[in-house]
Amino acid sequence: MPLVPVLTDMEYEGIAIDTAFLKRYSQDVTAELLRLSDEIFAIAGEHFNLDSPKQLGAILFDKLQIPYERKKTATGQYSTDEETLQSIAANYPIAALLLDYRELSKLRSTYIDALPQLKNPRTGRVHTTYNQAVAATGRLSSTAPNLQNIPIRTERGREIRKAFVPRNSDYVLLSADYSQIELRIMAAMSQDQNMLAAFANKDDIHRATAAKVYGVAMEEVTSEMRRRAKMVNFGIIYGITAFGLAQRLGIPRSEAKTIIDAYFAQYPAVKQCMDTSIATARERGYAETLCGRRRSLRDLQSGNPTVRQFAERNAINAPIQGTAADMIKIAMINIHAELRRQRLQTRMLLQVHDELVFDVPKSELDIARHIIEQGMITALPLPNVPIEVGIGVGENWLEAH
Questions:
Q1: Within 10 A of 360 (CB to CB), how many other CB atoms are there?
Q2: Which residue, of 143, 208, 344, 395, is most buried by count of CB atoms within 10 Å of its CB?
Q3: Distance in angstroms (rounded) separating the CA atoms of residues 392 and 372
Q4: Which residues pair with 125 in a beta bridge?
């Protein structure tokens, strides 16, 4: 309940968007889509409806004779979903072009052309709605529009963040986000000595994990080793299996199992913590965050192995992701209260999982930065684990983040 007035103020405040930038970007994207279409049609040898899975399937697998290794859909069509295209993209350039086309097309329709239509005519700003009781993990969700889903993984997606700007030239946007908070929570819950040491020494946690798993010195860790270790670090939090890791890394299942086994050999307390989480949740019927918020997991008793294993993964993840959600909510309440107490003009605008975005007058930048950083670091102290917050400032959201 204490978060309700904070969310009310954020929804009322909204955020300014640069519609002129979005208009220019839409033109650029449209030109790029036309170029991609021409390349695809040239390879296909004919024009067809790129948005029709039926026509696309016929072109790829009948006309171009690309090997099709999956079952057809219930209606007898070829599947042309992202997974299918990804599996053939390395050997068939048309599939890579189609993936690019779909990404750009979705960006244009979902964000680039849609955001200007969502501007409130009275305020000239975009106002999202935050929901506290939708995500089972306890995270906030955002709707109409969903501003937590603005893409960040691809360069084209990131460009959209340039459209989110301060209210005027006297303000800047400030972005503050927790650094690897879920891994830090896992370290605090398990009290694993190797993981605690990595955070205490301010090591790159993924590099440190790679060094442990592969038995090499930190400076000998290659970028590929680090990439795999990162996948394992985040996968473990979600109860990843050898099969799941093999799929994500594109390696044999036996190799993935070896990596996971090596991980647990180096982080034995993490394995013990995961097993305890499942056993405790099975006994109680729910998983619990460090703040005591519960998530019911009745399927832990299911006779169906697939259903039961899904519940077991949730029993591992819910306390971690749920604690991260609790932590940022406490930070939001405390920061909001302190900004009001000091009667500052700084306003909290957005919450995107582990990140908070603020509209800050340039004259308040130093004091606001201190309040925000301290509010996030002290929200929920973790035993033996330092909490780090990254802060950026800029003329738009991308620059700040």
A1: 27
A2: 208
A3: 12
A4: 16
What are the CA-CA distances from residue 196 to residues 2, 265, 284 (Å)?
32, 15, 29
pLDDT above 90 for 9: yes
pLDDT at 66: 94
b/e sequence 30-49, b meaning 16+ C-beta within 10 Å = eeebeebeeebeeebeeeee
Domain ranges of the chain: 4-164, 196-266
Beta-carbon neighbour count of residue 155 at 10 Å? 7
CA 214 from chain center: how many Å?
27
List, in order, residues 6 or more apart from 59 with CB less than 8 Å away.
44, 46, 48
Q: Whole-angstrom Cα distance, residue 284 to residue 271?
A: 20
CATH number of 4-164: 1.20.1060.10
Give residues with Cβ within 8 angstroms of 338, minimum separation 6: 371, 375
Give the angle subtended at the CA of 151 by the CAs of 147 and 153, to the nearest 5°: 150
At residue 266, does pLDDT exceed 80?
yes
The two three-digit tokens of residue 328, written as one number? 């940022």
H or E segment and range at residue 229: helix 223-237
**Element of type H or E holding 376:** helix 365-377
Q: Does residue 240 register a pLDDT over 90?
A: no
pLDDT of amino acid 152: 86
For tokens 């906030």, name the residue.
Answer: 140
User: Is the pLDDT reported for residue 297 higher than 80?
Assistant: yes
